[in-house]
UniProtKB/TrEMBL annotation:
All copies of domain Reductase C-terminal, residue ranges: 323-401
Protein name per its UniProtKB record: NAD(P)/FAD-dependent oxidoreductase
Record's keyword terms, sorted: FAD, Flavoprotein, Oxidoreductase
Keyword NADP: no
């Protein structure tokens, strides 16, 4: 495969910017166009629900310094929408212009999901996806304000912790029986519930949203499907995100059933010179033998960096394990791997109630995932156990020296 002369990257988030930077690190001297709808230069998302909401910073972690793009001869076009891909003539329509490409990378990210209930179109229902969202929410999280958060996933829980830090009165609504239930299951999800309740958060779990209630054009409460209402001054919707795959779909690229753009082990789509990375990539993971789509920070960063070498002629499979982290109150955690908390065996090492523990999820005796909570000495060992899907007796995971279990 001949080296390309021009590479176009659609999406100015972490994945796209990481790909652009890695191309220059790989020595690519051709044209690089990085184009997207954001108003700010590429930044990382974790600080939005962490440092910015907590008030520790006003700035996100920028992917690169402001001068980087000009210095590396990367053409960065912000506030510019890509509207169509033409596979036959290798062009993409962006901002009213037509741009040619030899290789194309789709890194269009995701957008917050909406509820299909009456009142969902109130303009003042908050969502958290962009830098301006986080800055605006931080101003709303003040002493005595009533904050209602719909969704008890990672964003909802981190937002609840930030709002409580600022003295807001917080209620979290979710139809599932525990926060973080789909990811962590009942036992570990219960640890997070008790922690938040100890910090003053009220949970309304096992009940869904029937509608948003408002007056004079403003949302003022959430009516639940048991007939009760939760009034709020600030209503935040945090029920996950959907991948922005419209551009890929209209171009005729193969799509996963449900969501995501199908990519092979090397992150290539069904079109030979078109790749997809980050939130939209339904990646056939060689270790798991199935498609995996991950919406976390590390996946966007690592896939963006990895795809650069394949754009330039390599065909290296992407094999990194999913990874994410969270900070809530005095709890810090890291999660590695891919687990089904309702089918896999849970093994706990340490003190659940003291919130200093490691949780392992095993399938057929193999370590599929591990989460360390306020325990930081065994990160390398945990990564090795997950990456190799090591077969370890549960009793040894609970008590033995973890470094010694890595074969």
């Amino acid at each position: 495969m001949a080296e390309p002369r021009r590479i176009v990257i659609v999406g100015t988030g972490l994945a796209g910017a990481s790909a652009a930077g890695a191309l220059r690190e790989q020595g690519f001297a051709g044209d690089v166009l990085l184009v997207g709808e954001q108003r700010y230069r590429p930044y990382e998302l974790p600080a939005l629900s962490k440092g910015i909401l907590l008030g520790d910073t006003e700035e996100p972690d920028w992917v690169h310094d402001e001068s980087f793009y000009a210095e590396k001869n990367i053409e960065l076009r912000l506030r510019t929408k890509a509207t169509a891909i033409h596979l036959g003539d290798r062009t993409v329509d962006v901002g009213g212009a037509t741009e040619s490409w030899d290789r194309l990378v789709l890194a269009t990210g995701s957008t917050p999901r909406r509820l299909r209930v009456p009142g969902a179109d109130f303009d003042d229902i908050r969502r958290l996806r962009r830098l301006d969202d986080a800055r605006d929410l931080r101003k709303e999280f003040t002493e005595g304000r009533r904050v209602v958060i719909v969704g008890a996933g990672w964003i909802g829980c981190e937002a609840a912790a930030a709002a409580r830090k600022h003295g807001a009165d917080v209620t979290v609504v979710d139809p599932l029986p525990q926060p973080l239930h789909r990811v962590l299951g009942d036992t570990v999800g219960g640890v997070f519930r008790r922690m938040h309740e100890a910090e003053g958060v009220t949970f309304r779990l096992g009940v869904g949203v029937a509608e948003y209630v408002g007056e004079n054009g403003h949302a003022t409460a959430v009516r639940l499907d048991d007939g009760s209402e939760v009034a709020g001054d600030v209503l935040l919707l945090a029920v996950g995100a959907r991948p922005r795959t419209e551009l890929a779909h209209e171009a005729g690229l193969e799509m996963s059933e449900g969501a995501g753009v199908d990519v092979d082990t090397t992150l290539r789509t069904s079109a030979p010179d078109v790749y997809a990375v980050g939130d939209i990539a339904a990646h056939f993971h060689p270790r798991y033998g199935q498609r995996v789509r991950v919406e976390h920070w590390a996946n966007a960063k690592d896939q963006g960096a990895h795809v650069a070498k394949n754009l330039l002629g390599a065909a290296e499979p992407y094999t990194a394990s999913p990874y994410f982290f969270s900070d809530q109150y005095d709890l810090g955690m890291e999660f590695r791997g891919l687990a089904d908390p309702f089918a896999d065996e849970l093994v706990v090492r340490g003190d659940l109630e003291g919130r200093e523990f490691i949780a392992f999820w095993l399938r057929d005796g193999a370590v599929r995932a591990a989460m360390n909570v306020n325990m930081w000495d065994d990160g390398d060992a945990l990564a090795a156990l997950v990456d190799t899907q090591a077969r370890v007796e549960p009793a040894k995971l609970a008590d033995a020296d973890l470094a010694g279990l890595v074969g």
